[in-house]
Specification:
By secondary structure, this protein is an alpha+beta fold. The protein is built from 8 helices and 23 strands.
Amino acid sequence: MNVALSPPKLFVRTVPLRDHTAGLVSRLPDETPLAWLTGDEGIVGWGEAARLDLGSEPEGTAPTDTTRFSEAARRLNGLREHAEIADEVGAAGTGLVAFGTFAFAPTSPGSALIVPRVLVGRRGGRSWLTTVSDEPGALPGGLPHTASAPRPVGPVTWTRGSLTGDAWMAAVADTVTRIRAGELEKAVLARDAFAEADSPIDVRTLLERLRLRFPSCFTFSVNGMVGATPELLLRREGDRLTSLVLAGTRPRGEDPDGDRRLADQLLASAKDVDEHRMAVDSLRTALAPLAEEMEVPRSPSLLQLANVQHLATRAHARLSPGVSALDAVAALHPTAAVGGTPTDTAMRLIAGAEGMDRGGYAGPVGWLDGAGNSEWGIALRCAHVDGARARLFAGGGIVAQSEPASELAETESKFRVMREALTDGS
């Protein structure tokens, strides 16, 4: 396990930023950009004042192990204790901020927290600049007045992932058989695909395309994971927590009548409503020990995105004293919407059925600041970008009524988000 025995001394300063006109993505240099955006608001950062790579656990570790989250909290607390912070703005996302991504499974590598050298934020009509240096009064390098223009992706070669479509459908059919036999109620199975460009992919190009196409989603870039997730694992402000559960999916229609017909089918589908209920029950069970109050609607609403529509439930809670954002992240992950029910059984099935390591896919991704404010999403509708290569992910919830061909079609709909982001002129 990678443990920092002596955290670096960080000097953090946040000041108001008068320039409210420039887009956040346009401020980013092209190297390892960090981002968490909703429409025109959010935070972006670059450089690494501190990087906390979190260890993976040995094979055989319980799939619900939370060591990586507790290690992240301990090491981040060490950074805070050694930091001198001057915050002239005092909003969520100011002061000492770390972007983070956690692997789906405890045995997978890739979990990390990154404190950027430079951060620019915008929220509620206010903008700010945070700089982090190693000496008092010093400005970090890499403060460009104007960043270079994002580059087109160029030609892309697409290849299949770890399993063929037929092999993945066979895994779905086997999972349905096990569910009907009573081994479990639900498992979420995912698949991957690959894209190869002729030159390194400019993540800023993907961020801008995703942000514009999905303004209500959370567009992110952290440690190679890039995407636009509709699923808010949690938002914490003070002692208040909000979480958005999504489970049950249909594509959007080609015209208003087709759209309404698909929406009505989703709302009336016993399979999708039951899948959604399991996800909401999972959230309620996980939050109960951490919260003094909870508000969870009895029935879902409809959330419509550019390419798909979901059953959605927005839950609210007031956390008990002493409960941190990472405590809540550890308790909520994996939700039934990305793992299954019962959690332990579903996680073990996933590990054997998918023929791949998910890495950061379906794991928590987001940010937190020194005051305890944070936003964490679930890394869905995403890809892991490494140089000229992107690995795309998509999945769906499998229950007793699932049909393999329909589930394969659902993953194809979800792949479209990143396929279009990687395609120039789409």
